[in-house]
Amino acid sequence: MNVQAGSVRILNHHLNAGYALLAVADVAMFMACAISGPYVYRIFQPAAPLPSAGELAAHSTLFAALSTLAMVSMGLYEPRRREGVNGVVIRVVCALALSTAAMGLFEQLLPLPQHLTVGKGALSLTLACAFAVALGNRLLHRRMLNLDAVKRRVLILGHGSPASTIALKMRRRTDREGFTIVGYISLAGERSSASCQPSIIVSDSLPDLILQHRIDEIVVAVAQPLDDLMRYQLSRCRELGACITDIVNFFEREAGKILLEGADRGLFAEDPVFSCEGEKEPAGKRAFDLMAAFCLLALFWPLMLLAALAIWIEDGSGAPVLYRQRRVGRDGRFFDVVKFRTMSVNAESDGQARWAAKRDPRITRVGSFLRRTRIDELPQIFNVLVGEMALVGPRPERPEFVRELSRKIPHYAQRHCVKPGITGWAQTHYPYGSCETDAANKTEFDLYYVKNRSLFLDALVLLQTVEIILFAKGAR
Q1: What confidence tens digit (pLDDT) does each residue in 57-100 have?
Q2: At CA 152, angle to CA 226 and CA 461, rounded to 5?
Q3: Quick one: CA dihedral 16, 87, 102, 46, positive or negative?
């Protein structure tokens, strides 16, 4: 674990420090709720049995773990959320419902020892307490994040096009949770951008400016190389306690993506994670994919049968249920992805590839439902089992789109350093892509996954996919 400015880095992945502390607080409070539940219930039902201290400790640990994971799956530890209080309430209720269902599933599939279960009355009180605690923690956390006293004070070194990327792509309050931009410094010979406000004129040395404005971090966002004097002043600022960060690392940490406008070719040429052609897939990753794929197949095969039946009812028993389409996989190799057919049989009879659009007339009524619920993606489990796809990775695209996007989007081909996935970091952080602009934005998230991939990040993406499915986010 590595602690950086405003973030905690676990197994290469950047976690917002404020939300990491929120998760720790939730775990502690959930355990307290689970321990106090049986005691409070006994006030109303004196005859109710009271578990021992060891039994309560085991039960509270299981409840806190499952509830916290459910909160993760509902996106309740994600910065840059724009939902109001009502949205938070809905997600907390869904998370506690999921954790309760998970505890029930544990009891059915794995006969738990008596000390891991409590009565329904005590559990109801525990859930009511957990709801109040989770909601209260988030309201307090949101209020704390809005206090200037606890925010990191960031100074942007630059006033041109690179710096304007921060001003434009991080213009919302939710994009700047945990930090505030004090201003932008214009350098000699730099073409200024009107979006970089407020502008700061350096009349004294940069170290004096750091002390004057109590700067915690300097983000270097300039196109031209820095001169010797500026590099010396930055080293002095570092000695005074200011963190020095370049714009690419700043976006990687704060936004969870690799900024295409600022990343040079050296990043992709020198970093071995972007040049993995010919390398074998890590054994742990493959074992994780196989285990998860078999579990998903065992869990969802009845749903897959119902989906096939619905397609037959709508289009007739002679109509194909599955749809195979050529996609580009790891190292640019072609494979046929398998999905439930959601469009009419001759949707592309002219042979021309098209992006899916909102209210696409090619999509059938059953297909619309399958797409909203992501059930149409389930047959890709077989692509995972045969090794053509992973459970988590960049979305596989059609060869026609790949050829076009590789010409127009810098570093697009680096997505193919890893296997494509059924779900992915980009899919959980950006809406459905239906144009080149969307593809470019999603590529930034895909490159973050390629650079920082780990089993921890895979598990996090899978949990976050629950919210995507439950709320039909980005479906088309």
Answers
A1: 888 898 999 999 999 999 899 887 777 888 899 999 999 999 98
A2: 95
A3: positive
